[in-house]
Design goal:
By secondary structure, the protein is mostly beta strands. 7% of the residues lie in helices and 51% in strands. It contains two helices and ten strands, in the order ββββββββββαα. The strands form two sheets. A six-stranded antiparallel sheet has the order 1-2-3-10-5-8, with no helix packed on it. It is globular, with a radius of gyration of 13 Å.
């Protein structure tokens, strides 16, 4: 399935006052552009999807696998399937998340852990 998409044409969904998201899906993967304001917390969660997180601008502090990992602009974190993780935006941040397969909870809007903010 060939697609050519501009981010400016993708709906920007406001999940909570500190978190916005845009999503593009292919047949077997999903690319999400995540916009986090400084202080945004993504509560601990896990999912069966493998995830790559590339911080384009800013910095995210993760608590994952029993340790703290800070991912800064230009760095990538690979999160295995079913690994619990939590993230804090240390500054205003833009990151790109790739998931395989696409996140069904994001597509069907049952991702309540993101929608309440903290």
């Amino acid at each position: 399935m060939l697609k050519h998409i501009r981010w400016n044409d993708v709906e920007q969904e406001k999940l909570n006052p500190l978190l916005d998201r845009q999503m593009i899906t292919g047949e077997n993967l999903m690319l999400a552009r995540i916009l986090l304001k400084k202080g945004c917390v993504v509560p601990e969660h896990s999912h069966m999807n493998e995830q790559l997180t590339w911080v384009v601008e800013g910095a995210l502090k993760f608590w994952i696998d029993g340790k703290e990992i800070v991912v800064r602009s230009g760095e990538v974190l690979c999160i295995p399937s079913n690994m619990p993780h939590e993230a804090w935006a240390l500054e205003d941040t833009i990151d790109l998340d790739v998931f395989n397969p696409p996140r069904e909870d994001w597509l069907n809007k049952t991702d309540n852990y993101l929608r309440h903010g903290r």
